[in-house]
TrEMBL record, chain A:
It comes from Neobacillus vireti LMG 21834. InterPro entries: Znf_put. This is Putative zinc-finger domain-containing protein. Residues 4-36 form the Putative zinc-finger domain. It comes from the Bacteria. Pfam families: zf-HC2. The lineage of its organism: Bacteria, Bacillati, Bacillota, Bacilli, Bacillales.
TrEMBL record, chain B:
It comes from the Bacteria. Pfam families: Sigma70_r2, Sigma70_r4_2. Residues 24-89 form the RNA polymerase sigma-70 region domain. This is RNA polymerase sigma factor SigW. GO terms for molecular function: DNA binding; sigma factor activity. InterPro entries: RNA_pol_sigma-70-like, RNA_pol_sigma-70_dom, RNA_pol_sigma-W_bacilli, RNA_pol_sigma70_r2, RNA_pol_sigma70_r4_t2, RNA_pol_sigma_r2, RNA_pol_sigma_r3/r4-like, WH-like_DNA-bd_sf. Keywords: Sigma factor, Transcription, Transcription regulation. GO terms for biological process: DNA-templated transcription initiation. Belongs to the sigma-70 factor family. ECF subfamily. Residues 128-180 form the RNA polymerase sigma factor 70 region 4 type domain. Transmembrane segments: none annotated. Gene3D superfamilies: 1.10.1740.10, Winged helix-like DNA-binding domain superfamily/Winged helix DNA-binding domain (1.10.10.10).
Length: 207, 187
């Protein structure tokens, strides 16, 4: 019967921790002892067997299933990642926010009565009157005041933050716009800007 | 690779779940395999592997970032599997421990000499036989063997994962190896 010590050496060898002189003892013994050689080969075969069943794949959707079971993510992180992934949209929305803000402040500041300068327009306090039988040429813009149309306007009418009264005899050839809320105001500004941009592009063609 | 994982962990600590998804992708196969070899059942293995990742996510702030993440993750997974094995262990488990072997039963000591019937040999894949024999090992030896030969980790890493002295890990691997040799010698 072989000493238990030899088995111990085999394990040291298999752990790759055997010292050279001990390895020599093991090798010498294995050459002379069939029984130990068999055990040693069986151990090596066992290791090869166990190693042969590695490399398994996790099931499909494993990652998605894990993520769906995680506690809810903080909103801040989600927003941060969204901004990182869509820099253009982020910049655009930031621009919109700033623009809305500046327009809103002009809306608040702009409380004074004003009217576009045209002949024939009669101004009484904060009321602008287009008298009966008169014809006003061009666009009429009234801010923070009333507009009473008893005559005719050849052009567009815009009333900002005010009221418009159209008499039965009154007549407007163009469009009538009333701007009373902040969002209308912003919308109006954007339309105006867009119109200006289009005009810039249109001009060279008409020339 | 460790560098990528470290970066992702920092993002996860800030609460980014997508970064955690990348970590899961990197380790899912090895964690799933560890669980499957420990438990021997695909459904249970998937369940435990998912649980391991979820626990890692929830406790990520307790992870010491100077250490290897895989070691920590494998420790969570191994402990979950061992708990599961202990919970489901049937109480009619009569085989007594062999003295001085820390859990090896008489059953695992007896070589399986009776040859299997012809048709059974044909139907049983070699892999299934090996897996069956690994599952027969007591969980202490099983975890050490799986970490060593399936996950191919170093003895030092295994000692960290199992939170055991190096000498104990070696003993467990030696005993596990010997038990498997006796079971598989006629295969």
């Amino acid at each position: 019967m072989c000493p238990e010590q030899i088995i111990e050496l085999m394990h040291e060898y298999l752990d790759e921790e055997i010292e050279p002189d001990k390895e020599q003892i093991l090798r010498d013994h294995l050459q002379t002892c069939k029984e130990c050689e068999t055990i040693f080969n069986e151990l090596k075969k066992t290791i090869a067997f166990v190693k042969s069943i590695s490399h398994m794949q996790a099931p499909d959707n494993f990652t998605a299933n894990v993520l769906s079971r995680l506690p809810k993510e903080k909103k801040k992180v989600k927003l941060g990642r969204w901004l990182k992934n869509h820099p253009m949209l982020a910049a655009a929305s930031l621009f919109l926010v700033l623009m809305m803000g500046s327009l809103y402040s002009t809306w608040n500041q702009d409380r004074e009565f004003s009217v576009s300068k045209q002949k024939n327009l009669v101004v009484k306090n904060n009321t602008v009157i287009v008298p009966k039988g008169e014809t006003v040429n061009g666009d009429v813009i009234v801010r923070n005041g009333k507009l009473e149309i008893e005559g005719e306007i050849k052009g567009n009418v815009t009333v900002i933050n005010g009221e418009k009264y159209l008499a039965s005899a009154g007549h407007v050839t163009g469009q009538i716009d009333e701007v009373n809320e902040v969002f209308d105001w912003v919308w109006y500004h954007m339309k105006k800007t867009a119109q200006e941009v289009i005009d810039i592009f249109d001009q060279p063609e008409t020339e | 690779m460790e560098a990528i994982v470290k970066k992702r962990i920092k993002q996860v600590i800030k609460g980014d779940q997508n970064a955690f998804g990348e970590i899961v992708e990197i380790y899912k196969n090895s964690v799933y395999q560890l669980c499957f070899r420990m438990l021997g059942n695909r459904h249970e293995a998937e369940d435990m592997a998912q649980e391991a990742f979820i626990r890692a996510f929830v406790n990520i702030h307790t992870f010491n970032q100077d250490l290897k993440f895989s070691t920590w993750l494998f420790r969570i997974a191994t402990n979950l599997c061992i708990d599961r094995i202990r919970k489901k262990k049937p109480d009619y488990y009569l085989d007594a421990e062999v003295a001085g072997t820390e859990g090896l039963t008489m059953y695992s000591q007896i070589p399986d000499k009776t040859p299997l019937p012809e048709n059974e040999v044909e139907s049983l894949e070699l892999h299934e036989t090996i897996q069956k024999e690994i599952l027969k090992l007591p969980e202490k030896y099983r975890s050490a063997i799986v970490l060593k030969y399936i996950e191919e980790l170093s003895l030092n890493e295994i000692s960290e994962i199992l939170d055991l002295p190096l000498g104990t890990v070696k003993t467990r691997i030696h005993r596990g190896r010997e038990a498997l040799r006796q079971q598989l010698q006629y295969v």
